[in-house]
Amino acid sequence: MPLKLLIAEDQRLFRQSLRLLLERERDLRVVGEAIDGRDAFEQALKLKPDMILMDVDMPRLDGVTATKLIRDCLPEVKILMLSVHDEDARIVAAVRAGACGYILKDADHAEFLRIIRATRRGEPLHSPFMPDGFAHRAVSALHESPNASPGGLALLTDREREILAFAASGQGNKEIADHLGVSLDTVKTHLHHIYQKLHVNGRVEAILSFLQTG
Amino acid sequence: MPLKLLIAEDQRLFRQSLRLLLERERDLRVVGEAIDGRDAFEQALKLKPDMILMDVDMPRLDGVTATKLIRDCLPEVKILMLSVHDEDARIVAAVRAGACGYILKDADHAEFLRIIRATRRGEPLHSPFMPDGFAHRAVSALHESPNASPGGLALLTDREREILAFAASGQGNKEIADHLGVSLDTVKTHLHHIYQKLHVNGRVEAILSFLQTG
DNA sequence: AACCGGCTCACCCGAAGGAGTGAGAACAAA
DNA sequence: TTTGTTCTCACTCCTTCGGGTGAGCCGGTT
Known about the structure:
The structure is a homodimer.
Chain A: E1 3-8, H1 12-23, E2 28-34, H2 37-47, E3 51-55, H3 63-73, E4 78-83, H4 89-97, E5 101-104, H5 109-120, H6 134-143, H7 158-168, H8 173-180, H9 184-198, H10 203-213
Parallel strand pairs in A: 1-2, 1-3, 3-4, 4-5
The structure holds a DNA duplex.
């Protein structure tokens, strides 16, 4: 008896590609697709799937709320969240709302299938297929402010953005220091922090990141 | 002769699903995958694909900048942008940078394949498969006014432009040397000449000049 | 032949950049 | 008060970058 799956994902191309991937497996059967959270809720009631693959980020009704609704009406259905970032605080919220686990969109498709099958067998969250450090990151995510957008310039302080802007205009550290009236070491320290926050490898990459987002 | 495709998309699951979808087609062949813009640049140089499906939103190096870099080194390769929103201003930037068109991630997979094949045949951007909307009009407008006069970069030799492109992707001299199979000193000499020809003071200024003019 | 542009490599040297650490001052929030 | 953040500065160690110079090789031109 194949596992009846419902895919809830707003990006059609991704949704259809995913369906293709899943339908190659004999033990899995995609019984429906939903284009947002509300649709997922309705489809779930109608189709009674065994498991739902639910994107966190969807229009009209987000994955977390949809999970909550579905778990209220259909407690037996298993829900796996799909998310881009593992720092996503909504993953924790989703698990609280009744999700059985989560899969990163960056996951390998083999790992993807393994997680689905493990969840089907009712294996716990701390399954070996879960990315390492889940618990740790989950706790961290709870403590992090919701405005945190990983990789964005938003998390830089004003001073750091200012310095990055100077750097992006082609100035050297010494020049920047003179312009701002601080020491060379201070500029270097700021840049050091910038590189860490942006997860980049050096000045040029940081500037590219700045030019894209700026 | 199947079309050689390179997929540049940071979400692994989407990337692999996409590959699956494309490989079912006899006339298409996925020759490689790239996980970000910089990787796309390197893979493009290595694999020489006919067409690149490039996500706009990628870490390390965004799709627009990557498009610029690739078009400068491999002018014959066709680049199709992938984006979530058709209001995305980066789509316009991408077309300006040399992309042949764009596909929304919300597109139907059949439409997706149609656009790829239309682009392969060199059909104009205002193809009927293009969704209506802002970006569509912008793309058409751009297509009607082909200008792009090469600036100071014209006096650079092919090798110099190539090296500058590598530098602009965030790579260090050692990395560039390894990629090109030449010595570190050679790369430094080329850069030395580049700085002199462009009348700039260093790496960052040269890159800015490259990104603006290229 | 002689010449020249482009590509390659080597050496020296000083300047700049970056990792990592520690720490003090100002200030706001809990 | 305690805690945390931001900005500041210093110090070491190491890598990378850039300027300058010289030189060999190859291919095409005059």
